[in-house]
Specification:
It holds the Pfam family Hexokinase_2. This is Hexokinase-2. The protein is of the alpha/beta class and about 900 residues long. It contains 30 helices and 26 strands.
């Protein structure tokens, strides 16, 4: 027993001594976590240089755009061919992707050797060999019935300007075929296929093997957004935000970037980590000074690096009693596969001895231990360096996502990663240590490059089909100039019909007289009470007008909610609630015993026969209180005040919110003769010549007309531009068949139109992976504010995705792009329709006055106009194009409804005083 212990102690001591000896010799290859963090920071800086247009030229990490815009979403299907060229062998694959809910991929492949004379010969011979191999494969598998999409995995640095084009920057991995560098390799392949003949293929995508790895894993693992190869060569790719890639136009969405990290350090940034052994490897390589990171990491050089170290240690008498064999002196005799065998957990030392004996060496037990440790240090340094660069990529993705922690998947491939028994475990461990805030899952790619090329092709095909189907769906919302001119002309016709006595009852634009005969002239003064009812909130205000040199308006107000049960209850309940709010406000202001002139802003269609008399035509905006339509709302308010019997009010005027908006802006700008509301609802009023208003007696002067243009189209005159989505929204509304124009352009309905489109696209598997969630089924989930936020130019797609996820819609980046496009299309049409209607109004005023050119101001209010990032600009541009002889200025109203009601009351009192 003692002998066994002594032997064990001796062997442990021997092992320890040998390890220390190797550690001292290779101290420069042992990297601490601090050094790795330093390398990672340097790599991040190189990534930034590569992404920037200014510094890309001199950057060693080229960050090449791949024009792969999306990872697989599982809906890909079809038959594809793939070519995989990147090493000593060449593979042709047939990949069948089925969409049957099982996400099944079937592959059939053949491997063809590439003779050394082809690798080092003419480029045309190389591509002819590839084309002939492809033809052989297609004939053997009877693939020529129809044109088959093909993806080409080409594992060398290329600059791509589109997915099916790539200019070779430089050969690597000992390839030297002449006449290819600087040329488009896809074009070379197509020419070779044509020369060979007999093949019906369509080359759709050029793919780097690293991209193929990411896409292959991405089909099975939705979170996969990084691909890494550690094999003969090494490289990484990842999904970068498009807005950060200066070399590509556009800033919507993401694109896979091929880092080409093998060249990291070519500019000297890694010189303090490069050892004399690395320099010897580099000097003897086919591309000295190039691909320095790759030469420290990849399988092509790892075995040779170990051979050089062993030879140097032997020459120093540290191994094999100083006796080197001819084999040990011969380049390439010690291979990377030997390292994998030597580092096997139990058989390592036995394998070491056999390999060394095959190299004509006579190793002792000490030598075997030392050689095994040399292999460990070299391969561990490779894993460390790879981990440092990968940590930089993961950190960048986390920052792009603006997250404290990142959960993602890295697709892995390459012979070193696949075959080395310790490599994956070491790499994973170091990555997790360097970036503890990134929870990383590593997935080994199955047939990565070939399957990946097919997946890139499948995704490209899917995106083309999806884009076509989405464009087709949205085409009905994209109005031509001729269609907008038609809307303008039909609006003008309906306005004329609304003004005439004989056609007024059948006109869809009601042109209601307001009995407001003039705009403010600046002499208005006094204290007024104002009520403002137009949505789910009700406001009570005191407005103090002051004239003279220091003209001013001061307001005091309180906002009260109108509960849904009151909005849709009885008329008596609604007006009792309004009076209760007034009572509370008068108490709050200490004005219970004061009888002020009152203006009532009532933002619903009313037929007025006087300034203080208005019969409700119909409810809008979700109101449905019974026993109100057809009745005078001023009388109903007076009756409710009597029932309360606490105070008395002098109701001077009933006011539409649009008229209030016009009056507010006119107080500051005398040219303001039009009011526009573009918010929850939509409406316009304007000063019309009395002679044109046949429904009111008198021909002298002007009167403000409330167009109530929201009803435009109720007679079917704009049915040709109403989409099926407009009809669906109408059918689900409280007032089916009514307010058709408003339902195409106001804030209350735009979100619903968007929701209907999203449901349609999701049902057709074009969005949200075909999964209709409960939130998506919920009417009203898309409010105008969400459309405004989603369309903001300042908002990155990541934030758009966050908004959608907040709404319970689990979206991908691609989904976010589609949703943003849908929102933009719907809101653009809304602004254009509003502009077409406004063009009809301003042109009518110009013709009323017999002017060649009209200069006029529009007072505007409403959340859509105020908050949407593009609505106002599109509206103005449409008016400019459709009414070229009118110079229209839009002025935003401040507190339009309340202040406007007070001003109308003041103007009415002044008129009474004058008569």
């Amino acid at each position: 027993m003692l002998a066994v212990h002594l032997l064990s102690f001796y062997f442990s001591k021997l092992q320890e001594d040998q390890i220390k000896k190797v550690d001292r010799f290779l101290y420069a290859m042992r990297l601490s976590d601090e050094q790795l963090q330093d390398i990672s920071a340097r790599f991040r800086a190189e990534m930034e240089k590569g992404l920037s247009a200014e510094s890309n030229e001199t950057a060693t990490v080229k960050m090449l755009p791949t024009h792969v815009l999306s990872t697989p979403d599982g809906s890909e299907k079809g038959d594809f061919l793939a070519l995989d060229l990147g090493g000593s062998k060449f593979k042709v694959l047939q990949v069948k992707v089925s969409e049957d809910g099982k996400r099944k991929v079937e592959m059939n492949s053949l491997t063809y050797p590439i003779p050394a004379e082809v690798v080092n010969g003419r480029g045309t011979d190389l591509f002819s060999h590839v084309a002939e191999s492809l033809k052989d494969f297609m004939e053997k598998n009877h693939i020529n019935n129809k044109k088959t999409p093909l993806g080409f995995t080409f594992s060398f640095p290329c600059r791509q300007s589109k997915l099916d084009e790539g200019v070779l920057l430089s050969w690597s991995k000992n390839y030297k075929a002449r006449g290819v560098q600087g040329m488009d390799v896809v074009e070379n392949l197509r020419q070779a296929i044509n020369r060979t003949g007999g093949m019906n293929v369509d080359v759709l995508a050029l793919v780097n093997d690293t991209v193929g790895t990411m896409m292959s894993c991405g089909y099975d693992e939705q979170r996969c957004e990084v691909g890494v190869i550690v094999g003969t060569g090494t490289n990484a790719c990842y999904m970068e935000e498009l807005r950060h890639i200066d070399l590509v136009e556009g800033d919507e969405g993401r694109m896979c970037v091929n880092t080409e990290w093998g060249a990291f350090g070519d500019d000297g940034v890694l010189d303090d980590f490069i050892t004399d052994f690395d320099r010897e490897i580099d000097a003897a390589s086919s591309n000295p000074g190039k691909q320095l990171f790759e030469k420290m990491v990849s399988g092509l050089y790892m075995g040779e690096l170990v051979r050089i170290i062993l030879l140097k240690m032997t020459k120093k008498g540290l191994l094999f009693e100083g006796q080197a064999s001819d084999a040990l002196r011969t380049k390439g005799k010690f291979q990377t596969k030997h390292i994998a065998l030597i580092e096997k957990y139990k058989e390592g030392l036995k394998n070491t001895k056999e390999i060394l004996v095959d190299l004509d060496l006579s190793p002792s037990e000490e030598d075997c231990i030392a050689v095994q440790h040399v292999c460990t240090i070299v391969s561990f340094r490779s894993a460390n360096l790879c981990a440092a660069a990968l940590a930089a990529i993961l950190t960048r993705i986390r920052h792009n996502h603006k997250r404290k922690t990142l959960r993602t998947t890295v697709g892995m491939d390459g012979t070193v990663y696949r075959t080395h028994p310790q490599y994956p475990k070491r790499l994973h461990k170091v990555v997790r240590r360097l970036v503890p805030d990134c929870h990383v899952r590593f997935v080994l790619s199955e047939s990565g490059s070939g399957k990946g090329a097919a997946m890139v092709t499948a995704v490209a095909q899917r995106l083309v089909i999806q884009h076509s189907q989405i464009s087709e769906t949205l085409a009905a919302f994209k109005l031509s100039l001729e269609q907008l001119q038609e809307v303008r002309d039909k609006m003008r016709t309906e306005m004329e019909r609304g003004l005439r006595k004989d056609t007024h009852s059948t006109a869809s634009v009601k042109m209601l007289p307001t009995y407001v005969y003039s705009v403010p002239d600046g002499t208005e003064t006094g204290k007024y009470l104002a009520l403002d009812l137009g949505g789910t909130n009700f406001r009570v205000l005191v407005v103090k007008l002051r004239t003279g040199l220091r003209k001013s308006v001061r307001m005091y107000n309180k906002i009260y909610a109108i509960p849904l049960e009151i909005m849709q209850g009885t008329g008596e309940e609604l007006f009792d609630h309004i009076v209760q709010c007034i009572s509370d406000f008068l108490d709050y202001m200490g004005m219970k015993n004061t009888c002020l002139p009152l203006g009532f802003t009532f933002s619903f269609p009313c037929r007025q026969i006087g300034i203080d008399k208005g019969r409700l035509v119909c409810w809008t905006k979700g109101f449905k209180a019974t026993d109100c339509e057809g009745n005078d709302v001023v009388d109903m308010l007076r009756e409710a005040i009597k029932r309360r019997n606490e105070f008395d009010l002098d109701i001077v005027a009933i006011v539409n919110d649009t008229v209030g908006t016009m009056m507010t802006c006119a107080y500051e700008d005398p040219k303001c003769e039009i009011g526009l509301i573009a918010g929850t609802g939509s409406n316009v009023c304007y000063m019309e010549d009395m002679r044109n208003i046949e429904t009111v007696e008198g021909d002298e002067g002007q009167m403000c007309v409330n167009t109530e243009w929201g009803g435009f189209g109720e007679n079917g005159c704009i049915d040709d531009i109403r989409t099926k989505f407009d009809k669906e929204v109408d059918e689900e509304s409280l007032n089916v068949g009514k307010q058709r124009f408003e339902k195409m352009m106001s804030g209350m309905y735009l979100g619903e139109i968007v929701r209907q489109i999203l449901i349609n696209l999701t049902k057709r598997n074009l969005l949200f992976r075909g999964h209709i969630t409960e939130p998506l089924k919920t009417p009203g989930i898309f409010e105008t504010k969400f459309l405004s936020q989603i369309e903001s130019d300042r908002l990155a797609l990541l934030q758009v995705r966050s908004i959608l996820q907040h709404l319970g819609l689990d979206s991908t980046c691609d989904d976010s792009i589609i949703v943003k496009e849908v929102c933009g299309t719907v809101s653009r049409r809304a602004a254009q329709l509003c502009g077409a209607g406004m063009a009809a109004v301003v042109d009518k005023i110009r013709e009323n006055r017999g002017l060649d050119h009209l200069d006029i101001t529009v007072g505007v209010d409403g959340t859509l106009y105020k908050l949407h990032p593009h609505f106002s600009q599109i509206l103005k541009e449409t008016v400019r194009v459709l009414a070229p002889r009118c110079d229209v200025t839009f002025v935003l109203s401040e507190d339009g409804s309340g202040k406007g009601a007070a001003l109308i009351t003041a103007v009415a009192q002044r008129r009474y005083a004058q008569t």
